[in-house]
Amino acid sequence: MSINKKVIVTIAAGLVLGASSCRKFLDVNNNPNIATTATVQTLLPAGQLYVTSSLGVDMEIIGSMWTGYWTQSPNASQYKAVETYDPGQDQFSTAWENLYQANENFYQLAKLADKQKKKHYKALALLMQAYTFQLITDGWGDAPFKQALKGQPEDGGILNPKYDSQTVIYNGALAYIDSAETLLALSDANDPTTDDLIFKGDMTKWQKFGYTLKLRMLLRLSEKDPVAAQAGIAALYATPGVAFLGIGEDAKIDFGSSTSNKNPLYAEASSTVLASTQNLVASATCVDSLNSNLDDRAYIFYTYLSNGQVAGVRQGAYDITLPAGSFSIPNAYVGGDAQNSASAKAPVIFMSAAESYFMQAEVEARGWAVTGTSDSTWWANGIAANFNFYSNDINEVMGYDGATSYANYMAAGGYWTMYPTTGTLQSKLRYIITQKWFAMCGNQGFEAWSEMRRTGYPDFFVVSKFAKGGELAKRFQYPTSESTRNAAFPGVKPVTAKVWWDIL
User: Fold this and answer.
1) Contact 15, 35 (CB under 8 A)
2) CATH number of the domain bearing residue 211
3) In the Cβ-directed half-sphere of 48, how many Cα atoms lie within 13 Å?
4) Residue 8 and residue 53: Cα distance in Å, rounded?
5) 311 domain-assigned
6) Which of 59, 245, 274, 502 could form a disulfide with 249 if both were Cys (CB 3.0 to 4.6 A apart)?
7) Strands of 359-488, DSSP E
């Protein structure tokens, strides 16, 4: 599952700093068509694309399989090890290395921007480091943090960085966010433009991104340390000018259909290695629930059959024989149809407006902040935001827009549309997180899996048929590159070992 790094370099059209977490050095690409001097305008997009290559491929596939969106095709075999919760260390090598390569770019970007007094570039570097380190620790647990990215002589020449605890990484990432928000509040005439692939230099959206990311991280502590989570969220909400991502402010990278600008999941599937083999199919876990609630999103997240229905395969049931055309596959709208070139245009989402609204619903439900808007309203806003995001796609398939589709969905009175306004906290969380899970189908698979580990919802998840020991996967394994090259490597962890905030 190695991403084509050539695509990343071509899109960025600039310097890429590459290194694994155990060997930090400046790796200048010698392609004569690529700049050989690092600039803030090349470091930023290259780093963002490295994150995208992990988030949109390996982490999307594994997260989506381990949270019940996708399963292994009975007519292929690429992800059987993932589906049985028995992947080898190398299953995670590319994702790990690309995330650390991203952070190398952001680290160098922060230093260069500081030297050049470009405050907002430095702020974006800090925010992207915080985001990327959260992905790393949520996926793998303990990881190099304080000593990571310090391989160059002027940074200390640390070639075997020690592993920091997940708590240390979270605290450090939260501090990055605070520093970034301070910088973003200052004026700066050197803002990025199109070299910022996420918000095109819109600093107001970046401020909201930082606050929304901080809210995500604090909520992640809700079951592990609710006192700290509540205190942190109360302080966040009391911050002057605090605002979170809303409709039309989704943090994402868009793609096109050109050879150098394809959605990375589709680029991987359509590569010469995988030869457009459809390895991923729809999981009945999600499909059946969408269908039972008359949810049009089933036709956006998945393809439909000749009879007009969307049908899934039981999680992990790749031993059965099914004729082609009898089950659905991930749709091109989420980049999952390996044989449909429209998949190339699917965006990779870092954080969405829907996620932002669902988090605010949870904060209200827990009583950790009072905004004057009820938890049920924030919850409904989250659902509406997801329909809005796919409005054009819904119109293409159904013949009406996302707003109409949302209204039809809520009016149909399906089980998951009946929010327990007067219910217990757990009954409310069950609806909030389950609707967040629906919204993240095919577009935020890793985050959905993280939320399932944090909360236990959705509670109708079907364990893979061939799961070894029948136990859910709870973390990624460290790659072989760490166990063989980093003298500070703490040892292999099984996929059944919890990360620190996990309640499952």
Assistant:
1) yes
2) 1.25.40.390
3) 28
4) 8
5) no
6) 245
7) none
Return the pLDDT at 468: 75
Q: Which residue has the higher pLDDT, 337 or 38?
A: 337
Residues 49, 325: Cα–Cα separation, whole Å: 35
- 337: burial class by Cβ within 10 Å (0-12, 13-18, 19+)? buried
Please list, in sequence order, all residues whose beta carbon lies within 8 angstroms of the beta carbon of residue 280, skipping any fewer than 6 positions away.
61, 64, 65, 70, 71, 72, 73, 79, 329, 330, 336, 338
Name the pairing type of β-strands 163-164 and 143-144: antiparallel
What's the whole-number mean pLDDT along residues 155-161? 94
Has residue 77 been placed in a domain? yes
Structural domains of the chain, count: 1
Confidence of residue 470 (pLDDT cuts 50, 70, 90): confident
What does the pLDDT average to over 268-277? 83
State the Cα–Cα distance between residues 69 and 287, nearest whole angstrom. 8
pLDDT tens-digit map of 452-466: 999 999 999 888 888
- CA 161 – CA 24 distance, rounded (Å): 9
Q: Which domain holds residue 441?
A: 5-261+345-485
Predicted TM-score (pTM) of this structure: 0.93
281 in any annotated domain: no
Give domain status of residue 294, yes or no: no
Burial of 258: CB neighbours in 10 Å, binned 0-12, 13-18, 19+: exposed
CA 430 to CA 213: how far, in whole Å?
22
Q: What is the mean pLDDT of residues 260-289?
A: 91
The answer for residues whose C-beta is within 8 angstroms of residue 451's C-beta and 6 or more apart is: 433, 436, 437, 440, 457
**What does the pLDDT look like over 41-89, one tens digit per residue?**
999 999 999 999 999 999 999 999 999 999 999 988 899 999 999 898 8
**Residue 406 near residue 295 (C-beta atoms within 8 A):** no
Reported as a pLDDT band with limits 50, 70 and 90, residue 36 is low
